[in-house]
Amino acid sequence: MSCDPGETVGAFLCQAGQVLRAAAIENPRLEARLLLGHAMGATADQLIREPRAPVPPEAAARFRAALAARLDAVPVAHILGSQGFWTLDLAVSPATLIPRPDTETLVEAALELFPDAAAPLRVLDLGTGTGALLLAVLAERPRAFGVGVDLVPQAAALAAANATRNDLAGRAAFLAGDWDAALAARFDLVLSNPPYIESAAIAGLMPEVARHEPRSALDGGRDGLDAYRRLVGILPALLAPGGAAVLELGAGQREAVEALATAAGLVPAGCREDLGGIPRALVLRSAPEAGEKKSIGGGAAAH
Fold it and tell me: How many domains does the chain have?
């Protein structure tokens, strides 16, 4: 299909869609609208309603630069500077993973575990990145308070900015450090999306991930389980009585992580699948003490 010549919205979208399609970019028309809308400061609806509107020269230059970056496999979220997650709008940067829809499965599992919206939960997010997990739970539980920890100072600073961006700064604190090193408290809910990709597999990931997202947030060691070994060792000291941890899993990792958790004295309490049917959100609890009921905390375990 040929595109109309000119400097109109319709012409730019048509041409960009063809270029992105030729580069095997998924959803090329959608991405073209996102990039042009960002360059023009316009919504997708405005672009669709006004295809004959002229594209100002400054916006055209920004759009061409954005399109070149996308063709170089820079993620759309990095070009736009933000990504939607749950009900939040989060700033992103190369210092953190881009929040993904699969990770929302952890939020669903956490809310199911603690269904009382008025509960004054203490929440910890280990490897917080953009703050996505912690902030999503705080947005749904208005009496909860949380701490996010990330080894990368730029990530902790970005998460703090996202708390302010989403009007949650009053109930969230962010620390740069080695997970539990600066923590002396216990938490009702511990969340973590740890690095879980096998080291040798990283080079074969999509270039948007392999080249533009931080290796430290991807690399789970030779077998992908290094971070889980660390997590199961520190969780017993971090969980309050009746508390639970929800960990993100990679495909095929459930049995191995459950075995590590059981060996560390934790009790696997269910695993919620993502929309693709992959076991994604593993729930762990502390082993009940003598005389304590096994069913503790709020709500049933995730499916």
Answer: 2
Decide if 34 is inside a domain.
yes
Half-sphere exposure of 266 (CA within 13 A, CB side): 30
User: Residue 275: phi, psi to the nearest 5?
Assistant: -65, -20
Annotated binding site for substrate: 193-196
Q: Provide the CATH number for the domain around residue 137.
A: 3.40.50.150
- Looking up tokens 């009053």 gives 170
Written as six digits, the tokens of 21 are: 């399609």
- Whole-structure pTM over 0.85, yes or no? yes
Tell how strand 187-192 and strand 122-126 pair up. Answer: parallel
Asked, for residue 86, whether it belongs to a domain, the answer is: no
30-65 b/e with 16+ CB inside 10 Å = b?
ebbbbbbbbbbebeeeebeeeeeeebeeebbebbee
Residues 18 and 152 in one domain: no
- Same domain for 228 and 141, yes or no, is yes
Distance CA 140, CA 47 (A): 33
- Binding-site residue numbers for S-adenosyl-L-methionine are 127-131, 150, 179, 193
Q: Which residues are annotated as a binding site?
A: 127-131, 150, 179, 193-196
Distances (CA, A) of 267 to 140, 245, 270, 283: 26, 10, 9, 8
Over its length of 303 residues, how does the chain's per-residue pLDDT go in tens digits? 567 666 899 998 999 999 999 999 989 999 999 999 999 999 888 888 988 999 999 999 999 999 999 999 999 999 999 999 999 999 999 999 999 999 999 999 999 999 999 999 999 999 999 999 999 999 999 999 999 999 999 999 999 999 999 999 999 999 999 877 667 789 999 999 999 999 999 999 999 999 989 999 998 999 999 999 999 999 999 999 999 999 999 999 999 999 999 999 999 999 999 999 999 999 999 877 644 444 333 333 333
